[in-house]
Amino acid sequence: MTWVLWAAGAIAVLGAIGVVASRTPVYSVLSLVVNFLGLAGLFLSLHAEFLAVVQIIIYAGAILILFLFVIALLTVRKDPMERSEDGLEGQRHLGIAAAVLVGALLVVVVLSGAPAFFAAEVADDFGTAAAFGRELLVTHVFPFELAAFALMAAVIGVVVLVGRKQS
Amino acid sequence: MSGELVQGYLFVSAVIFAVGGAGLLIRRNPLVVLMCIELMWNAANLAFVAFARQWGNLDGHVLAFLVIVVAAAEIAIGLAIIVLLFRKKEAVDVDDLRSLRG
Q1: CATH number attached to the domain at B6-93
Q2: Across the interface, do B75 and A63 touch by the CB < 8 Å criterion?
Q3: Which residue of chain A has the CA closest to B11?
Q4: Which residues share a beta bridge with A117?
Q5: Beta-carbon separation of B86 and A19 below 8 A
Q6: What residue segments make up the domains of chain B, in order of their start?
Q7: CA end-to-end span of chain A, whole Å?
Q8: Of A71, A50, A55, A47, which is closest to residue A15 (Cα–Cα)?
């Protein structure tokens, strides 16, 4: 089953690169969809079926639609979204160098510290909606409530920020 | 199949994190910057799920789920702020937003 890892991983990484490399934000969003689909495939191969479905519905469905709406509303008038190169000097090279450094560091840590192979076979219901729900609503119910509170605060914040009438 | 690589998943996660970080540093469109933050959160999620599979318990899944919830909240607020920025300053580039500069 290793081919699932490399195929879905390649899709996810290519999507991520597409997000960063696209000139127009719409293409970035579409690449982000590709990245999320690859990640959902990886989740599936890790027996995280519920999370894979959540990934598709919440991320690829809800959040990216939000992005597309904002892009469609805000950027109809101007197409070159970003000025080319008159900001910080050497920003691109320094940024890429810093990111490569961080990535190399993470990879080294992963390759030296983490176990190479998965240890045990997991239980049959590992990652199903039932097992996940039991874990979330019985064992971890307080973080669940906190998350609900955070969502409510976010909704109220959004309404306060942009819902007011322009005077 | 017991020969599945946990390191492979963590490697993919690290690469996605680094790509997101690069985008965060070199892109200046606020929308794309938000998307790059999403990439980094998702990389962390992948690591959570991989470790949950490694140790055979579901805590990592719960954590990844909470990350998704918080990301949704963060995106809602972030997009609202971006809408306000566009309304106020027509800013399409984070370099335009320097009114707090001393």
Answers
A1: 1.10.287.3510
A2: yes
A3: A107
A4: B5
A5: no
A6: 6-93
A7: 60
A8: A55
Contact at CB, A20 and B46, closer than 8 angstroms:
no
Quick check: B25 and A95 CB within 8 A? yes
Q: Which domains does chain A have, with CATH numbers?
A: 1-77 (1.20.120.1200)
Give the torsion sign (CA, A154, A157, A159, A162): negative
How far is A42 from chain B, CA to nearest CA, in Å? 8
ipTM confidence score: 0.88
pLDDT digits (tens, 9 = 90+) for B46-91: 999 998 888 888 889 999 999 999 999 999 999 998 888 887 776 6
The C-alpha angle with vertex B16 and arms to B11 and B20, in degrees rounded to 5, equals 150
Residues within 8 A of A (CB atoms), B 8-47 only: 8-23, 25-29, 31-32, 34-36, 38-39, 42, 45-46
Residue in this structure with the two tokens 């999507």, named with its chain if needed: A15
Q: Which residues contact B21 (CB under 8 A, 6 or more apart)?
A: A98, A99, A102, A103, B36, B40
Q: What is the pTM of this model?
A: 0.88
